[in-house]
């Protein structure tokens, strides 16, 4: 039987608790994602005296099949052998690892010593002799950074090293999260395995780097007890977490600044924790000696310069964000997974090309359909906008809706050929797996339905961007609603290059828009605000009341505060209903077609679950509504007296500014604080007939019309 030849064999001790194992795990993931096979060969390092399990990251890769663990003594064949951690070879191994490989690389991920002792950790000449005796004199010696390279050459000036460092890698998408605006004192912190040399040597420098100051908070994950021992006390503003109790990615998103200073004698091999912080979007403050690795993407100073720099940046949100994005972009471009695949390819390790087809492939039929892709597993806004466009495309245009929304059945009932893509939150997948699933699912739908246009009403998630780049022959359109919250979403704007066109649904409150789309206008095709229905499609008041089982002769109010999947709507709904019933209104509570849980009963309110509820708006004398894009523009366009209760918990949508603009324009009322007296005061005005008549007249004056048909015509011209 022919033995399996793996693409890459990695030989190391997989019990290391810190950066060595994290680095190995990153390379295995990159290889698995590219379709390359990896076998792990475990050898015990003589300096790990205490018995311990494999690092959890390594265990997870073995369990999910990303890597195969060779049994002790099992013969292994690979195209490339990668050996990590030279300290393993400070003593003779008990047995020669039975590994055969076409090429081999020894990754020097630790310097031989430090400033005080150039051979503190290993004797380079002795390690080289053992390694070459085991794996042959042709093995490559690859330092992980300029610092390690310099220290190896200090130990042996004649050493032959690779021309390019075998640097660390990281998948930035696993670490990045949108960083909301933070209030209060800036949080300075760091994480890493406990080691005395990982901290400044003197008490003065330790307190300069990690200040004992009431206007700064300090959080430490791992090793904080060593700093406390050095100080002789724990400052009141310090919070210490034990190493391994919190995932680094979660910990980093509690910090405003990552600050790392260590013993001056330590030669830090690379600084993986620094790279992780930058990938997470946390500005990094370090010593000048890290500049060869992180260039201008980090901030460089001395311990004494930390606090002034923190205060300066914390007071300047624009500069803070620029530093955050610069760091993230640098890490993705310099140390992302593609850089690892490139160095493997330089050594002949590439994914196998698919076999050529047995017969010439038939020429594809001309593409002319439209695939409408909507985001969001908790709302109907993205989906409704796309359906508004889709229902106005020419009848002979093949149109498919692909949605992550729970409302896929709504699109199906509205007559669309519908494909459901479960969202990441529904599947509970880690980000890399979700990215790959979304990309492959979109590519499959393109191959299946053959559209010429993919219109995406979503932020450009990694999977969407990857699919767009994999299918450049398709015209990709970003349907990008404006009115984003200030200081949010800039990272999505930066991904606009994945799309050939941007279609922008209009915004009645555009004059109050302070979001990032305002400054990104080149090549944007604007239309009027998009609503699912035109005014002519609404049924008359009597027909609407009969359909909703409303009593004639009494005023009626509709409450539509959202799906309930983003924020809790039950409490304000009860207060509003009670007030309106006291004013003689019959109350209808609109339950979203995609609400995850049935709404708690609201005394005296009649619950309806109808899509689109806008068809029956003329049956109501008053509507109390969240100010999401769709509901807001329907109510203004159709002249329905409205009170807006903006949802303040949305990630991007600036409902507060939208509602305030409508109130300032005299087209609606707004409840700023539904938990306070503001609600009763505003509702007391809204139930007055003359106030509602004034709102109707003002809406008729400013109604912007429906841009859905214009959007459909523009898309049609692109096919």
From TrEMBL:
Pfam families: Glyco_tran_28_C. InterPro entries: Glyco_trans_28_C. Residues 613-682 form the Glycosyl transferase family 28 C-terminal domain. GO terms for molecular function: hexosyltransferase activity. Keywords: Transferase. PANTHER family: SLL1722 PROTEIN, UDP-N-ACETYLGLUCOSAMINE--N-ACETYLMURAMYL-(PENTAPEPTIDE) PYROPHOSPHORYL-UNDECAPRENOL N-ACETYLGLUCOSAMINE TRANSFERASE 1. This is Glycosyl transferases group 1. It comes from Actinoplanes philippinensis.
